[in-house]
Amino acid sequence: MESPAKFISQVRSEVGKIVWPNRREVVTTTIMVLIMATLAAVFFFLADLLIKTGLGQLLNLVG
Description:
- It is a single-pass membrane protein.
- Keywords: Cell membrane, Membrane, Protein transport, Translocation, Transmembrane, Transmembrane helix, Transport.
- This protein is about 85% helix and about 0% strand.
- The protein is mainly α.
- It has a domain at about 20-60.
- About 0% of the residues are buried.
């Protein structure tokens, strides 16, 4: 088992390898996530509406 001091040293070494995104990258990816979430919401809303309408028509036809 390694000593706590060696572990802390290794953690600091690994943290030094992290490449943090700049402000522009964060803003760009945030906008892209919001756009994709909106598109997914619209798609699932329309799919749900289509299924609801189709089942309603089918039930009216049968019943």
